[in-house]
């Protein structure tokens, strides 16, 4: 049989008060894959990512990671289970320097290998090396996004979850960021779960994708299958 997925989501329902945001979601991410979740504004993509991280909690269903049921595991424990998240809106620490932000990322795993990992993320994002002692909040949007991803990488995650890394960024920066994600996957075998509204770039990059419409997965397939799917093209690619 097939190997068990690294991350598995089954029948997950999440509510905000009485309003249902996820209506029974099934999704798998296998080791070594880039999987993307696309969908319009308000579809529930961020909610799924946050539910995997334990806040808000799934009211029904099951989430397993590396063979462990994490459905009811508190967020601060999940953060120590080799899942790293770069949340939407790139929540870096604006008053801290780039260097200090990266230290915070490393602290999750005890801060061993700090120098080595700092070097590695600065090789991936040379802009950060030039700006190590600049305050995070004074960096450009693209630089802050690079910092948010670099900070997530400092914990040496087995699963990297990115929420809309392309949001509000110039096309050239988007290309740079996506090529780093590709390199991480190809060179280091990093498993990536990518939430994106930029469907074209996300589907080109991903091995597999899921389409979410108002809290429900409506389609899944390889990145290429979804790119070539007329419904996906009409809804998410044309003019976009
Ligand atoms: P976007 O791409 O715009 O971020 P999304 O697909 O990530 O959209 P979510 O942010 O997950 O969508 O939102 C899903 C639904 O849940 C929306 O209707 C949203 O208004 C609602 N929602 C999100 N967060 C909350 C909250 N804290 N309280 C109440 N409702 C919320």
From TrEMBL:
GO terms for molecular function: ATP binding; ATP hydrolysis activity; branched-chain amino acid transmembrane transporter activity. Pfam families: ABC_tran (PF00005). Keywords: Amino-acid transport, ATP-binding, Nucleotide-binding, Transport. Transmembrane segments: none annotated. GO terms for biological process: L-amino acid transport. It comes from the Bacteria. Residues 7-239 form the ABC transporter domain. Belongs to the ABC transporter superfamily. This is ABC transporter ATP-binding protein.
């Amino acid at each position: 049989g097939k190997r068990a997925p690294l991350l598995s989501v089954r029948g997950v329902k999440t509510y905000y008060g009485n309003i249902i945001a996820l209506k029974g979601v099934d999704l798998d991410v296998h080791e070594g894959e880039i999987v993307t979740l696309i969908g319009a504004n308000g579809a529930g993509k961020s909610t799924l990512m946050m539910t995997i991280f334990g806040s808000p909690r799934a009211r029904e269903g099951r989430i397993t990671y590396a063979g462990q049921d994490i459905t009811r595991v508190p967020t601060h424990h999940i953060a120590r289970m080799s899942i790293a998240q770069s949340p939407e809106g790139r929540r870096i620490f604006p008053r801290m320097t780039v260097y200090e932000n990266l230290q915070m990322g490393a602290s999750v795993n005890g801060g061993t290998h700090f120098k080595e990992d700092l070097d590695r993320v600065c090789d991936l994002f040379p802009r950060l090396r030039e700006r190590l002692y600049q305050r995070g909040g004074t960096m450009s949007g693209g630089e802050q996004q690079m910092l948010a991803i670099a900070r997530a990488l400092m914990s040496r995650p087995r699963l990297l979850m990115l929420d809309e890394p392309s949001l509000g960024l110039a096309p050239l920066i988007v290309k740079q960021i996506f090529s780093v994600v590709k390199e991480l996957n190809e060179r280091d075998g990093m498993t990536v779960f990518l939430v994106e509204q930029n469907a074209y770039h996300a589907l080109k990059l991903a091995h597999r994708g899921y389409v979410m419409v108002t809290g429900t997965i409506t389609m899944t397939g390889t990145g290429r299958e979804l790119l070539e799917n007329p419904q996906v093209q009409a809804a998410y690619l044309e003019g976009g």
